[in-house]
Amino acid sequence: xxxxxxxxxxxxxxxxxxxxxxxxxxxxxxxxxxxxxxxxxxxxxxxxxxxxxxxxxxxxxxxxxxxxxxxxxxxxx
Length: 77
Known about the structure:
Elements: E1 2-10, E2 15-22, H1 27-40, E3 54-62
Antiparallel strand pairs: 1-2, 1-3
């Protein structure tokens, strides 16, 4: 499952205008992606001298396959 969210980060680190650009097909996954972005806000303010008020950003969240050999292991006795 992969979801792409777009939005704006402002000079003070605020995030606005989040929208699902490409949904995963699962509402809960899409909402969790937006929640992760909002939960990490506010972000660091822009460095002094940056001459823009905001930047458009794109966040992509996807499933990560476990590494070979990773997974359930036998209990240690």
